[in-house]
């Protein structure tokens, strides 16, 4: 079932097409993160809004961040649903802060995926003078002393894109310090619903624990690459209701 949906034809109608347009690893990293951050809602709207965002950032989104091109963004400009210019500024400022210290997000040291997310969020907050942002570093989230319960769907989607190799869809450009076996399923409403229908989980909440349970069940099928089944779960769910990510 996974191979039915994990094909090159998947790319044309999916936001993953945006990081695939670049060849430089740092541009891929920046574009993949920003794309994943706004990857919720109507897929056509996501793609239209990504086109606008990356057109504004020019040929090299990484250079745009390092050169502070984001200084000129109107904070009130709507980019995607509740993601505004001020949110894009926040992410760009946080990335510039990190890149002057860690060079690539792949270098964030971690014991598991949740700790990687926690440390990314920490750098975002640190780079923005202690301010939080609901789209990437929410107060009370994984970077706080009280760990959040969010499944962090968008950041786990970003990691799936960057880490999974030998895929006709995912990019697999992070080959150091990461392994596909460590990934967590990007849990959205489609994946959660289909996982329950298949008996992979019986919890009603689409939260961090549910994402872990589903991923553990998928590891029983492939311990080395559990997230390849994301394509089957998402694909079946979306084909039943073809509108939401």
Give a verbal description of the structure:
The protein is an all-alpha fold and 245 residues long. 47% of the residues lie in helices and 2% in strands. The chain has helices at residues 2-5, 25-37, 43-57, 61-66, 85-102, 113-127, 153-163, 189-197, 208-219, 230-240, and strands at 78-80, 83-84. The protein contains 10 helices and 2 strands; from the N terminus they run H-H-H-H-E-E-H-H-H-H-H-H. Helix 2 packs antiparallel against helix 7.
What features would you highlight for this structure?
two-stranded antiparallel sheet; 245 residues; mainly alpha; 2 strands; 10 helices
In terms of topology, how is this protein built?
Elements lengths: L1 H4 L19 H13 L5 H15 L3 H6 L11 E3 L2 E2 H18 L10 H15 L25 H11 L25 H9 L10 H12 L10 H11 L5
